[in-house]
Design goal:
This protein is α/β, with parallel strands linked by helices and 505 residues long. It contains 17 helices and 16 strands. The strands form 4 sheets. The chain has an 8-stranded antiparallel beta barrel. A 4-stranded parallel β-sheet has the order 2-1-3-4, covered by helices on one side. Helix 14 packs across helix 15 (456-465). The longest helix is centred in the C-terminal third of the chain and has 27 residues, at 362-388. Mean pLDDT is 85; it is low at 1-32, 134-139 and 269-279.
């Protein structure tokens, strides 16, 4: 929630800046008005651009040297800098969602843009064996030993079925998006949701140990007794959800004999903090019911009627349903520049944009671009030579893994603690143990970290295995010293050449 409030505030600040700056195309604080002005978010596009324009344009990098790119948030001055430039180059994707708000707030005064993820084919972040990943609904890892019994009163309140919102068109926009993502027709997708969320009850009320069910024609009630909880595990034996089960004390009353609730909670004290973080969510749960037996309900794979707080407005439920699903969507891997081949494709896109705005220097830009691409081709050849002659084709990271495009380009296998855009810094004992075992089993000589990392996970693995810790640079940012010493994408990636050779031999 804090991030989205920040985005809203930035958009408001952009409007304030627009008002304050008037209609001038290039205010005095934008730099030398005779030079082309280019603003970039992070180091790769900053360096690509400066290799092409040299000293004939002003280039600004918003991310400060040494800062973590995944936690960057724009300042009012950053917004003004973007507004006053001729060309704005950014990565795109989940970490740059703030950009659209800023650019939209600028209206006709927004600069021309280039997104790196539009320059090359993209892939999704990949969860490989042993890797830490977000669990269902972001309510934390479910540890079986910490699951506690929960009374029916934990689910107390008045609730409404989400089914009518799928039926009456309220969620049509969401259904359309899901249909496109899953390559289905709208009708097919809608029918699937109607089946998954089907319910015989429009509303229900829970008070103490009594549940009252309302259909279109009647209300039936009964008291229930607690039967226990049943964890559901995936193929790896990890608990993915917990169902809390109850049995009616008066089946003759017309209520379902068995109930199974799932609200993603475990009742464990260790998860209280996670629940506090989600207290702003609309109260809801999934409920399965039937008269056969509890096992039949738990074994059901898809059917899970969902109920939201009865007083929640339709618009809030609409937002909650859409947001609920997006938590599970795969994210585009944004680290497209880690492949030198992709870097070449990105560099191919920049000259046309800067030449169009600064034709007097077009020849220099084109010449610089051609020379730079030759160097990138040589870099690519160096990596290929190493991989082709290597003893192994596997790299291992005790860290995040922002090298999906690099690994795909050179046919490398990999293991890592986290995905490239993960905000996690500490891995579970199971993940560390898995990576440690892999180093031993495959006799991997090097455990990688990435720049600006604390390296603690890699240290643990190296201490247990005798492997050497090395840094493989993703180039998302450089330190202040590196910037002052003139570090470039090429110089940093050339260091990676030697590191990769050590890791593969």
């Amino acid at each position: 929630m804090k991030k989205y409030i920040s985005i809203l505030l930035m958009a408001v600040l952009a409007l304030v800046c627009l008002s304050a700056c008037g209609t001038s195309d290039k205010p005095a604080d934008a730099g030398d008005s005779e030079k082309l002005s280019v603003v970039t978010t992070i180091f790769p596009q900053y360096d690509f651009t400066r290799q092409i324009v040299g000293d004939k344009a002003d280039i600004t990098m918003l991310l400060k040297p040494g800062a973590e790119s995944h936690s960057y948030e724009p300042t009012p001055q950053d917004i003004k800098t973007i507004q006053n430039c001729d060309l704005f180059i950014y990565t795109g994707g989940e970490n740059d969602v703030w950009v659209d708000d800023i650019l939209n707030s600028m209206g006709d005064q927004k600069p021309d843009i280039l997104r790196l993820i539009d320059c090359v084919p993209t892939v999704n972040e990949e969860i490989v064996e042993g890797m830490e990943h977000e669990h269902d609904h972001d309510h934390g890892e479910i540890v079986e030993s910490e699951i506690k019994d929960r009374p029916l009163s934990d689910f107390a309140g008045d609730f409404q079925s989400v089914l009518p919102y799928f039926e009456d068109g309220t969620l049509d926009e969401y259904i359309t998006e899901e249909a496109e993502e899953h390559e289905k027709s709208f009708a097919e997708m809608k029918q699937e949701f109607l089946e998954k969320r089907k319910s015989d009850y429009n509303t229900l009320s829970i008070k103490h140990n009594t549940v009252s069910f309302q259909t279109s024609s009647e209300t039936v009630s009964a008291e229930y007794e607690y039967l226990g909880f049943q964890p559901v595990k995936d193929d790896d034996g990890d608990v993915t959800s917990v169902w809390y089960t109850f049995q009616s004390k008066d089946p003759a009353s017309g209520v379902p004999v068995y109930l199974a609730f799932n609200d993603h909670g475990t009742g464990a004290d260790v998860h209280e903090e996670e629940h506090e973080e989600h207290e702003e969510e609309i109260a809801h749960f999934h409920l399965r019911y039937g008269n056969e037996n509890i096992d039949a309900l738990i074994d059901e794979e898809n059917w899970a009627p969902t109920f939201y707080a009865a007083n929640a407005p339709s618009e809030e439920i609409k937002e909650a349903v859409a947001g609920h699903s997006h938590e599970h969507e795969e994210e585009t891997d944004e680290h497209v520049w880690t492949s030198p081949k992709n870097a070449i494709e990105i560099v191919n896109k920049i000259p046309a944009l800067v030449c169009d705005k600064d034709q007097k220097n077009a020849d220099a830009y084109e010449a610089n671009s051609a020379d730079y691409k030759e160097k990138l081709e040589q870099l690519d050849a160096s990596f290929r030579e190493i991989v082709d002659s290597a003893k192994r084709k596997t790299i291992l990271f005790g860290d995040r893994f922002p090298f999906r495009y690099f690994a795909d380009e050179y046919g490398l296998n990999y293991y890592a603690a986290f995905t490239g855009c993960s905000t996690e810094t500490e891995a579970s004992a199971a993940t560390v143990a898995f990576l440690t075992d892999k180093v031993k089993e495959e006799q991997i000589p090097v455990v990688f970290t990435i720049e600006l990392s604390n390296g603690k996970i890699a240290d643990s693995i190296c201490e247990a295995t005798g492997a050497k810790k090395m840094t493989l640079y993703s180039c998302h940012n450089v330190t202040k010293d590196q910037m002052e010493d003139g570090a470039t994408y090429l110089s940093i990636m050339t260091e990676n050449v030697d590191s990769l050779r050590a890791a593969l031999n």
